Amino acid sequence: MRHNFGAGPCILPQEVFKQASAAVLDFKDGLSILEISHRSPEFDAVVAETLKLVKELLNVPSGYSVLLLQGGASLQFSMVPQNLLPEGGTAAYLDSGVWASKAIKEVKHFGKANVVASSKEANYTFIPKDYVIPADSAYFHYTSNNTIYGTELFELPVTKVPVVCDMSSDIMSREIDVTKYDLIYAGAQKNIGPAGLTVVIIKDEILGKTDRSIPSMLDYKSHIDGGSMYNTPPVFSIYTAMLNLRWLKSKGGVAQMEKENIAKANALYAEIDRNTLFKGTCAVEDRSRMNICFVMEDPELEKPFAKYADENGFEGLKGHRSVGGFRASMYNALPITSVHALIDLMQSFEEKHKK
Ligand SMILES: *Cc1c(COP(=O)(O)O)cnc(C)c1O
Question: Whose CA is nearest to atom 8 of ligand 1?
Fold first, then answer.
């Protein structure tokens, strides 16, 4: 089997793939999960368990709703200002990468984005610090893990304004304190399940503060009232996400994942720093545990290393075009044995090419 370091849609546990495929053939009395009614009691139970697992795994307190939506994290870029930004209001945004800047771009349809800091000039190789979030901002938006550039923000900025976070690529990878957030969103395909599902966790009291008229499908309230079943939900994505969250819980939950993710990331960064052929691309203090970006001291060796990796069963290591080099995405389901295999590969390549 190939070692899957792809950035997304991501690796999921083999047992999840087995269970999901079994349900395609027979979910209930010979009926496929793909053909049952989303209003059936059996599917109601799937939605209920998925919501319960999200709440349980992240310790979501009362006063928050969990929503299972569609449209990806990208739809949240506009749903957030549409629902939270009053007419003529301003929201504060931290520009730490391409996804953050795409979120910023959507605000203009509804009001103003105040970019409090940006590391764009440095090709997003670090997370900006020492910025001020004006107290009259409608909310503060940031991206906790910059999937493309391999930086991660572990400490939540201190502010009194509502905090909105795009957690697409590090949700469920480490413990968080949900009470510090007002809205969290994540496209499922990085760490929760397959593509097609977006998870939103929202503090109920922040809604209903704009006078804007919002189409039902884009209004968080319709989805809260409809119990994430305002319209036909992405049935199979939800089912598979539920299986993956069950797996996560059985493995010891988010706290255990965090331990493993720290071990995996430390091992690979140690090799990148030790190996004479490779170097990391980001500020050391901002290094992501989920997406580890590195290049070669000699760019001429990048093609041969990519080929060597491919021949030896490694998948998805190519860096995003805006960074180049390599990116090892190490989501929850990636076993540490794959990380050790990558380290061995880097060492054997070094042996061959040592000057
Ligand atoms: C992948 C990603 C997105 C985009 O997600 P879609 O579900 O494809 O819209 C947004 N933000 C972050 C941090 C991502 O990693």
Answer: 72
